[in-house]
Write a structure and sequence with these properties.
Blueprint (H helix, E strand, L loop, with lengths): L3 H20 L6 H20 L1 H18 L3 H10 L2 H9 L4 H23 L3 H41 L2
């Protein structure tokens, strides 16, 4: 009976994550909000089921999001950064942790958009980036870093709260 608990919890939370990713196409800002909400769900899976189930959950949600979510950019953001709740405790043990976290986020973001633009040739992104201009892209990256570090802080506080017990 105890072995079924992680699988059942992971399955239910994966279904919820897919619903969140699928509904993300309704609101423009959801492109970045939905992957963050799914990362919080991954935190719960990792907390209650462990790293192995967490990695399996991430893989399943990433593949299903790419297949089912109408907003492919949001699905790609989850693929590029959705694993962060699993890596966060390891990064926090490193010296100058904020530097490594920032490098992870920025490298994943640049790689993500390079793949979306040059491999998949998403014309909508090309038009959007041309409309924003260089200053708009820099502001977007700075705001992305701010959101990422806020997510990092929330995950850190949640982990401290649940590991006290």
């Amino acid at each position: 009976m105890r072995k079924a608990y992680p699988v059942a919890l992971g399955g239910v939370l994966a279904a919820l994550a897919i619903v969140i990713m699928t509904l993300g196409g309704l609101i423009p800002v959801a492109t970045y909000v939905c992957p963050m909400l799914c990362a919080l769900l991954l935190f719960a899976v990792k907390l209650f089921c462990g790293d192995r189930i967490g990695w399996a959950w991430y893989g399943a949600v990433a593949v299903l999001s790419l297949l089912l979510a109408p907003d492919k950019e949001a699905a790609a953001v989850f693929v590029a950064l959705g694993y962060y709740p699993i890596l966060q405790p390891k990064l926090e043990k490193m010296p100058v942790q904020w530097l490594w976290k920032g490098l992870l986020f920025n490298a994943a973001s640049v790689a993500l958009y390079a793949v979306l633009l040059y491999v998949f040739g998403m014309e909508q992104l090309v038009a959007e980036f041309q409309e924003l201009g260089m200053i708009g892209l820099v502001v977007t990256l700075v705001l992305g870093n701010l959101c990422f570090f806020l997510l990092d802080r929330v995950l850190h506080m949640l982990r401290r709260r649940f590991h006290k017990k």
